[in-house]
Specification:
Layout (H helix, E strand, L loop, with lengths): L2 H25 L20 E11 L12 E2 L2 E13 L2 E15 L8 E20 L11 E20 L3 E3 L18 E15 L4 E12 L16 E13 L12 H9 L2 H25 L37 H5 L7 E2 L12 H14 L3 E5 L7 H21 L7 E5 L12 H7 L1 E6 L1
Parallel strand pairs: 12-13
Antiparallel strand pairs: 1-3, 1-10, 2-4, 3-4, 4-5, 5-6, 6-7, 6-8, 8-9, 9-10, 11-14, 12-14
Helix pairs in contact: 5-6
Subcellular location: Cell outer membrane
Keywords: Cell outer membrane, Cell projection, Cilium, Flagellum, Ion transport, Membrane, Porin, Signal, Transmembrane, Transmembrane beta strand, Transport
Protein name: Flagellar motor protein MotB
Length: 447
């Protein structure tokens, strides 16, 4: 096939493919994206596609390199591809190509090999396809995208060369450098690496029109039938145009044209989601109001209204856990003039924690101080176990525990002074446990 015939064949093929694409545009309805969620998975998209392509096969690549012939021909190539889109920017494609490669040593005087023609029975590869530029931050939908490809493949071919003495056709007697020459085959087989790039156009929701170029690096030096240089490898390229058809439900969008930013925006602006958010805000507001109602204390006595059995108590009134005023203690004249006569406050061994049995005594003392004023000194003591320094600190802690209780009950802190006396002034013998229990105490005295 000469170059003129090739151009006509490719042109007719593209016209036919474009006609099919136009028909698909007329009959295809846009896919809906309303149900698509950011983390909804691939199941909400169309991810499979098939394609056909045709173009020009050449025994050279765009990046140059050595060649065994000084002139190459452009021949028709064609093939199929199946692609699985794994994400909006990456997919795996199984690609197959057939065609012919040829070239000549034109203008060379008496070349050993005049020309070659290689039948490419098949070249099948699995390649990764990376979509670049498929996300446009300024556009919701894209109709043009660029892609890069790379992978690995396996091919079968049969070179035919013309020498000064005749024609050598490898088909039916193909052998390679490592082949057993007594076991000829129809085709030489080997591996190759395809690397390419291209641009795709979104013709419709289901149809893409692709233009691409792939360089194929063969793991052999016999693609053109000539072992010209021992360490070089042959190569060929394929420039093509093709149509790709997306498979699956029309209700789903195609994953390769998805813009994740637009999907995220749509999900955030989803009226249903906004309604759910507003409903949640209302529920939170209701809970907050309920909490505030639980905390409400109208009379300020420290007991919430819903637990207050005696609402409206005057400010400053001492109340119990139900919000009712505590009974006023009967204090005689001697008690108001001299705060003495209260029971001693006892403590456990090595402890400054008040016992619950001491609360009535402390409540009585608190009532006297709040109603009659005056000041007291709280004296703390300890038994003789331990060092004198430790017992002095322990006695101070016991005195401070009593002061803290009195202040929390409403007594002004300035009315209470504390003093730690350590082991001094025992009121019983420290030689017995009974005596030591009595010495672990606090006493109060009016200033």
């Amino acid at each position: 096939m000469n170059y003129s015939t090739l151009k006509k064949s490719v042109a007719l093929s593209l016209v036919a493919l474009t006609g099919v694409a136009s028909l698909a545009v007329a009959q295809d309805a846009p896919a809906t994206t309303s149900a698509v969620k950011v983390f909804g998975g691939r199941g909400q998209y169309r991810t499979w596609s098939i394609g056909v392509h045709g173009g020009v096969l050449m025994p050279v690549v765009a990046i140059g390199g050595t060649n065994d012939f000084n002139k190459w021909d452009a021949n028709l190539g064609y093939g199929l591809n199946i692609r699985k889109q794994l994400g909006h920017s990456f997919g795996l494609e199984l690609n197959g190509t057939r065609g012919k490669l040829s070239g000549t040593n034109e203008g060379i005087s008496n070349p050993a090999v005049k020309d070659f023609e290689t039948e490419l029975q098949y070249a099948v590869d699995l390649r990764g396809v990376v979509n670049v530029g498929s996300i446009d931050f300024l556009r919701r939908e894209n109709s043009v995208g660029f892609f890069l490809t790379a992978g690995a493949g396996y091919m079968a071919y049969a070179p035919k060369i013309t020498t000064q003495t005749g024609v050598i056709d490898w088909k039916g007697k193909a052998v390679g450098p490592a082949d057993d020459r007594h076991d000829a085959k129809d085709y030489v087989k080997g591996f190759y690496i395809p690397v390419g790039a291209g641009v795709k156009f979104k013709v419709s929701e289901r149809v893409n029109f692709n233009l691409g170029y792939t360089m194929n690096f063969v793991d052999a030096d016999n693609l053109d039938g000539v072992y010209a240089k021992g360490q070089t490898k042959d190569k060929f390229s394929y420039g093509y145009a093709g149509l790709e058809f997306s498979l699956g439900s029309s209700a789903k969008p195609s994953l390769e044209w998805t813009n994740p930013l637009a999907t995220m925006y749509d999900e955030l602006k989803d009226p249903t989601l906004r309604q759910e958010v507003e409903a949640l805000k209302n529920r939170v507001s209701a809970v907050e109001k309920s909490v505030e109602d639980l905390k409400k204390d109208t009379d300020g006595d420290g007991v919430a209204d819903q637990f207050d059995k005696c609402p409206g108590t005057p400010a400053g009134t001492a109340v119990d856990g139900s919000g009712c005023p505590l009974p006023k203690p009967q204090v005689d004249s001697t008690a108001t003039s001299n705060v003495t006569g209260f029971e001693k406050i006892g403590f456990d061994f090595n402890s400054s924690v008040l016992k619950t049995e001491s609360y009535p005594t402390l409540d009585k003392l608190s009532s006297v101080l709040r109603e009659n004023g005056g000041k007291v000194t709280v004296n703390g003591y300890a038994s003789s176990e331990g060092t004198a320094a430790y017992n002095l600190k322990l006695s101070k802690d016991r005195a401070n525990s009593v002061k803290t209780y009195l202040v929390n009950s409403g007594v002004n802190a300035s009315q209470v002074a504390t003093k730690g006396n350590g082991e001094a002034n025992p009121i019983a013998s420290n030689d017995t446990e009974e005596g030591r229990i009595q010495n672990r105490r606090v006493e109060t005295a009016r200033n």
